[in-house]
Amino acid sequence: MQPRDLSATSPYVPGRGIEEVARDLGLDPTDLIKLSSNENPHGSSPKAVEAVHQQADDGLHVYPKASHTDLTEKLAAKWGVADEQIWVSPGADGAIDYLSRAMLEPGQSVLVPDPGFSYYRMSTRHHHGEINEYELSKADGFEQTADLVLDSYDGERIIHITSPHNPTGSEWTREEIRTLLDEVDDETLVVVDEAYGEYSEEPSSIDLLSEFDNLAVLRTFSKAYGLAGLRIGYAAVPESWADAYARVNTPFAANEVACRAALAALDDDDHVEQSVDSAQWAREYMQENLDAPTFDSAANFVLADVGDASRVAEASQRAGVIIRDCSSFGLPGCVRISCGTREQTKTAVETLNEIVAEVTPT
């Protein structure tokens, strides 16, 4: 017996971890700087860490019903929406699956960005949907507009847009999102992925849920809150979808520890502020000091055009700085560098400048 044909589904390619790289290269893990996965260089919210320890002491033998309800209520209050509008999930990718289950019939099509987060495609394929793409142009600085999407739009059931976008860092304006929502069919769901939303100065599209019933917004605790290892996120959806969540949600998928950590992290404004301010500094430093063209970014990373991403990323890794080769995104000339601490960022820029000088033809 074999699984069904999955050949059309490309697997998600994560950034390499410190332990993995250290083992392969025979290096001491403490000598490596990992800037490949857009993780928070300041770690988790201290309040979240305290909540994790407390929950471990209190016991992990109870299903997370109360904590799930508490987190839902707190998120709803944060955004000024009804409790029924918050779909808590195991990471934002879990919310993508929930929306695919709720909205997609077999054979319906989904419009996704290219380049873009591979799980949009994976979730669509898993739910027997078809993929269409709209292309973000490197020549245009990966600008994202309603016209860009509408030029490729053909009545798809779901459209995925990302703001800020991974791996480019470009973002949508409120005006362009509103235009897109006005122009698509009533039965087309626009999913706005705001995984990096805390780093952006644009307002969240959650504010538009009172106006549009074909909108869903994704958020995560992985980035600014530093809880990537706990896999906790959520979708904000129209109030009219109240009964759909219970029908598509995996029972207790958001675990007790993750829910309690997220609850605590929501009260840790100082940690989020530090994370956002640090990322802004690091973005500006890289854009001003890297000896390679960079693209405007509103996220916690910078995309740089280094000519040969594979060579540069491999050389950087050997030199102790792990960055992301974006060939898997269809950008073989680009690397993505996550925002580190000031010391990490300065070291990364110095290392990359030496490498770019060596590998770039004169």
UniProtKB/TrEMBL annotation:
Gene Ontology MF term list: histidinol-phosphate transaminase activity; pyridoxal phosphate binding
EC numbers for this chain: 2.6.1.9
Spans traversing the lipid bilayer: none
Pathway: Amino-acid biosynthesis; L-histidine biosynthesis; L-histidine from 5-phospho-alpha-D-ribose 1-diphosphate: step 7/9
Matches recorded under InterPro entries: Aminotrans_II_pyridoxalP_BS, Aminotransferase_I/II_large, HisP_aminotrans, HistidinolP_aminotransfase, PyrdxlP-dep_Trfase, PyrdxlP-dep_Trfase_major, PyrdxlP-dep_Trfase_small
Domain of life: Archaea
Cofactor: pyridoxal 5'-phosphate
Cited HAMAP family: HisC_aminotrans_2 (MF_01023)
Family in the record: Belongs to the class-II pyridoxal-phosphate-dependent aminotransferase family. Histidinol-phosphate aminotransferase subfamily.
Protein name: Histidinol-phosphate aminotransferase
The species this protein was found in: Halonotius aquaticus
Gene for this chain: hisC
